[in-house]
Structure formats: structure tokens, C-alpha cells
Amino acid sequence: MSFEDSTQLLFAGRYQLERPIGSGRTSTVWRAWDETLGRTVAVKVVSVALLPDVLLRARLLEQTRLAAALRHPGLPAIYDFGEASVPGGRDTPFIVMEHLQGESLAARLARGILDRDEASGVCGAVANALAIARDAGLVHHDVRPSKIFLAEDGVRLLGLGTGLPFAAGQEPVVSPYTAPEQREATTGTGAADVYALGIVLAEATTGRLPGEDSLSAELPDGIAQLCARCWAEDPRDRPTATEMAEILANPVPAKPPVFETTTALKEYPDQPPQAADLIAPRPPRRRPPTRRQRARRVRRVRRVVLATLPVALIVLL
Q1: CA-CA distance, 245 to 249, in Å (whole number)?
Q2: Is residue 103 classed exposed, middle or buried when 0-12, 13-18 and 19+ CB atoms within 10 A define those classes?
Q3: Do the Cβ atoms of 85 and 77 come closer than 8 Å?
Q4: Which residue(s) pair with 104 in the sheet?
Q5: Are 156 and 100 in contact (CB under 8 A)?
Q6: Closest Cα to residue 176, out of 204, 150, 143, 222?
Q7: Angle at CA of residue 45, ends 43 and 48, nearest 5°
Q8: How does pLDDT run across 115-172, given as a tens digit for each residue?
Q9: Is 286 helix (H, G, I), strand (E, B) or coil?
Q10: Smallest Cα–Cα separation from 199: which of 223, 181, 165?
Q11: Is-contact 123 205, C-beta < 8 A?
Q12: Which residues, at least 6 apart from 130, have a Cβ–Cβ distance to it below 8 Å?
């Protein structure tokens, strides 16, 4: 939604709207000044046309209360929630949140892909936030790069508990991040969020969405196996958000380079030792004796025994 002169509007009698900083299908987010507490905040104004049902408003309020009770570095703080009048004489729900400095993952990926460690760190932080939300009974339903914010002090998952609920009979919004079970239903589970995060992880490391056979081959070691599990058709076969966070926190190390021994220290004693010089050479492998060598060894032992036998007898006598 938009207002003709937002600089003159004191929203909810407290928040001075300054400028829109984001918009979506269901709402607009404004940068605003909280005149009561004297701080900059983000005010999410929900489109009233999409919430005609009182039950939907109650459901949005309940989800927002659950999200506001969470304290986690991967989730933005929620300060306020209510309804306020907008031009036209209608009341619309609004949510006041922490104002963040940075950019979305979608904006970052527009400039190029992330390396393996960056992608693991970002998606691992999101998985941690999803695990905390799941324990509180919350499901995101819409994990995607535009909902992941790279703030100056860390990664934030936006939209948890503040997204517009679906109305009964409403068609679900299908995107490349939508899990198979969500394509026929308006609700999802934590497994659907893990599915979506697996898509984000692949996109962050390759710049492309799944759908081509060659994509799995382009994924780094360990990431390909994790993404394949996240994309399982059966939600029960996918890892939990907690398990995904643990895997991304301890990625499979890349194959170490193979160093060969060198004589650099002997030839150039003034040079500092290199990594290859510090590795002791392997001892040569001994081949097993051939049949001829074994027979020769037996004959040699026999001659020694025959030569020393008389001496042994004399000593014995």
C-alpha cells in the first residue's frame, strides 16, 4: 500500500513513516521513526484487502505473538503489533520490527554467487533460526533469498510469524522454493522450510535453481549430498533444521592436496622450508621373495647346519 503524503502521517499515533524500504504481495515495509522511544524502526503494513476475515487477523496476531516471544540472533526483534486507520477510513494490521542495515541475500546473489564457506554460514544461520521457530510451533512457509537478510551484525530470517495466513480455499502461491507437499495445500511443516532452504543453498553456491541434471555435479563436496536429502519427495526423509545446521557448521573438508617429497632444502639451504619438505618420505615397500630366492635361502641354511653339526657334536661329547 502507499500513502499520498507519508511525511505528514503519524501512523498509529506514534510512528512517523519516512519511506518504503520493501514491498511484497501482501504488505509494504516502511522505515519509520518511533516518536515514543526515539528510535528508527521498520513498520510492516498489511494490505487490508487481503485480510477481510476476522479469523485471519486473529491468526496473524497469534503468530506474531509467538514470534515476538522468541529471542534469537537469527530473527529480527518484534516491538509492536496492532491495527491502525489508513487513508480511506479502514483499519489495517501493522507490525513494528527491528530496523536492519544491510541487504537481502537476493540482492547479494545478483552480484555473484557465494563461496562454499559463505553459503554454509548464511544457510546454517537460517537453519538455526528455523529450528528455534519449529520448537515454538512456528513454520515460515516462504523461505527464499529475499527473506534472508545479510545485516551488518549477522544473518536474519525475515517474515517468520509475520506473514499473511492463507484463507480457506485460497490457492497456494507456488515458486521454485515450494515443497512438493505444499503445491496442493495452503499449509506446510518444518520439512517444507528445510526443502526451501536446500534450494537456497544450491542457488547461493551455483547461481542457478535446481531443475538441470548437471546442477548436482556443480555443487561442492558435502553440499550436494545435503541438498539431495533436503529435496527428498517424502518429507520424512529430509533432515531436520537442527541437523541441517549441524552439518553446515561442520562441512565435509575438501580433499587435501597430495605433497611429494623434494630435495629443495639440500639444493637451496638458504630457502625456508616448504610444506612438502616437512613430510617424511615413505619407506620403500619390500617385495615378497620369489620362489627361486626362497629355495636359495633354504640351501644356504642347510649348508650352514651341515657345516656346524660336527662342531656341535664334539662340544656335546
Answers
A1: 6
A2: middle
A3: no
A4: 149
A5: yes
A6: 143
A7: 165
A8: 999 999 999 999 999 999 999 999 998 999 999 999 999 999 999 987 765 554 556 6
A9: coil
A10: 223
A11: no
A12: 140, 143, 157, 190, 193, 194, 197, 241
Task: Check: CB of residue 220 under 8 Å from CB of residue 174.
Answer: no
pLDDT in tens, 271-282: 454 544 444 555
Could you tell me where the beta strands, DSSP code E, fall in the chain?
A: 10-11, 15-23, 27-34, 39-46, 78-86, 90-98, 102-104, 148-151, 154-157
- Torsion on CA atoms 52, 53, 57, 60, rounded to nearest 10: -100
What value, to the nearest 5°, has the Cα angle with vertex 98 and ends 123 and 127? 15
Cell numbers that stand for 35 in this block: 516518536
Distance, in Å, from the CA atom of 174 to the CA atom of 186, rounded to the nearest integer, reads 10
Length of the chain as a residue count: 317
The cell for 46 is 498489511
Please give the Cα distance from 191 to 233 (Å, whole number). 11
E strands, 54-196, where?
78-86, 90-98, 102-104, 148-151, 154-157
pTM for the predicted model, two decimal places: 0.74
The C-alpha atoms of residue 156 and residue 74 are separated, in whole angstroms, by 4
